Amino acid sequence: MENITNRVPAGIATGGQFAPVPHSEPSLALVPAPVDGPDFDYDFEADHGAGLSKELQALPRISAKAAINAGKVADLLRDSYPEYWTGEDGAPQTRAEAVKNLEEALCHLPRDQREHHIQLIRFAVHEEMKHWADRGHVLNPEHPYELLIDTSDYADEDDLLDNGQDENRERWELLANTAAYYAVAADNASVVQQGAVA
């Protein structure tokens, strides 16, 4: 379901406020959430993956405590991946439900900002989940940017599988939690800004 928001030209009153500058459409449209299956296909990753990875890695580092707390937001998406869960029941929610919950958690952000933050979180979780789905993913990544570790740091292929796989997955997990942290911070700042205007 597509929710279309009309953009407001500068100086036009809407909702009791004036838009200070013209709003433009985001340069990267949010990929619709599938019910299940991969979030991003090969072509999307080939076109946008390196840029998203670079943006995620450029985010300022956060403390371990902040990452744990922000992980609860990224978990909204993780809960929709069956490979993340053990047992016969599988994932407790669909991907579309997970994305909807994430949108509600960041509901104070303007649409384009919310979609961008969600895109970053979804992408990092998607990369993290590749490691859960394939215990040898680190040996055969689909794209070069997926390796956040330096494979030369590992003695041999067994060491890379035993240790590098988990290290690379943990780095994607941290990027997802970091993206979630900054998304929540932006949402909180939006609440404060909206309160100051009111």
Strand tally: 2
Helix content: 40-55%
Order of helices and strands: EEHHHHH
Uncertain ranges: 1-26
Strand proportion, as a percent range, falls in under 5%
Strand order of the largest sheet: 1-2
Outline the structure in words.
The chain has 198 residues and is mainly alpha-helical. The chain has helices at 42-58, 64-78, 95-105, 111-133, 157-197, and strands spanning 13-14, 17-18. Helix 2 (64-78) crosses helix 3 (95-105) and helix 2 (64-78) crosses helix 5. Mean pLDDT is 85; it is low at 1-26.
What is the topological layout?
Layout: E1 13-14, E2 17-18, H1 42-58, H2 64-78, H3 95-105, H4 111-133, H5 157-197
Antiparallel strand pairs: 1-2
In short:
Helices cover 54% and strands 2% of the residues.
List keywords for this structure.
198 residues; mainly alpha; two-stranded antiparallel sheet; globular; disordered N terminus
